[in-house]
Design goal:
The chain is an alpha/beta fold. 41% of the residues lie in helices and 15% in strands. The strands form two sheets. It has an eight-stranded parallel sheet. It has a two-stranded antiparallel ribbon with strand order 8-9.
Length: 313
């Protein structure tokens, strides 16, 4: 059943909240008292869903009791988890030992999603930041690690995501593969090629076109990217950027923007998604500044568009 504009799960990303407490502890292991303030603020901003970003708390590294405690804290603020987002833990990273650790981590995250009643886990192929990315004002302005483009590597990605998809299906969880530059999910065509190779009903795409639009180079047209990916989409991270290009100098500029104001016309994009039959959870993201307040504005903007775009009852 397609959700209504009021009930559509739109989760607050936790990108703007740190994984370390003010006194230097790992927030994951610090327990309920270290989780309450963030979730209280998310609820205060009007959200009823949380997109559990593992840069804030790693549910994969919580034991059964820890997961019960996290779920209880969320429920105490009338919050549900719409997704768990795994960040920068590629299953085909060149260090095979690390790749295997990342696969094991993904499986623990899937187990955690079942425990936390989250229907979706978002995985990607992007690696940790390079030193240049850590030093940049915005990390996308510096070069990151890229997948080595061989058929063997592409087949490895498909096989490993298929195995994870089967593991997730047995636990009632879906997998979404996040679009990200420099990886086999870096273009619309390569993303569709990979999810088609995985070929499982519970594995789809996350067409995070904001990751592409912010790049300081020529990029695919966002409408064309969505046209190709939306038929395979089961979850969507939405964010926007101001984007400019000066043909006289060849220079590009980009900076984070609220959904309504940036380069991507999300009124049109959401309309395209509705027409394609997309009915999965959404996640609103924003880098810099008061990201929670911006994502709250984005949530309200999306709901207003859904009121106009969804068929009348």
């Amino acid at each position: 059943m397609t959700p209504t504009p009021e009930t559509w799960p739109i989760g607050a990303a936790l990108l703007n909240f740190t994984g370390v407490t003010a006194d230097g502890r790992d927030r994951t292991t610090a327990g309920a008292e270290a989780w309450k303030q963030t979730l209280r603020e998310v609820r205060s901003a009007g959200f009823d869903h949380v997109d559990l970003t593992d840069s804030w708390v790693r549910p994969a590294d919580l034991d059964s009791e820890g997961r019960k405690e996290l779920l209880a804290v969320a429920r105490s603020y009338d919050l549900a988890f719409s997704d768990i987002a795994v960040t920068r833990k590629s299953v085909i990273t060149p260090d095979e030992d690390q790749a295997q650790r990342n696969i094991a981590y993904a499986k623990r995250t899937i187990d955690a999603a079942a425990d936390l009643e989250a229907p979706m886990v978002c995985l990607g192929l992007h690696d940790p930041f390079t030193e240049a990315q850590k030093e940049a004002t915005w990390f996308w302005l510096a070069e990151g690690a890229e997948d080595v483009d061989t058929q063997e590597n592409r087949d490895k990605a498909a096989t490993r995501f298929r195995d994870l998809g089967e593991y997730a299906a047995a636990r009632g969880v879906s997998i979404s593969l996040e679009m990200y530059e420099g990886t086999f999910l870096g273009t619309a065509d390569s993303s569709v090629q990979l999810v088609t190779a995985v070929d499982l009903p519970n594995v789809g795409l996350c067409p995070d076109i904001g990751n592409i639009v912010r790049l300081h180079r020529e990029v695919e047209d966002w409408r064309e990217m969505l046209t190709k990916m939306l038929p395979h989409t089961n979850y969507w991270q939405l964010k926007n950027y101001f984007r400019d290009y000066d043909p006289a100098t060849g220079s590009y500029a980009s900076a984070p923007a609220p959904l309504a104001l940036g380069f991507i016309n999300y009124r049109e994009a959401i309309g395209m998604a509705v027409e394609s039959g997309f009915d999965g959870p959404m996640c609103v993201e924003h880098y810099g500044g008061d990201g929670l307040s911006v994502t709250a504005m984005n949530r309200d903007y999306i709901r207003e568009i859904l009121k106009a775009k969804l068929p009348e009852a």
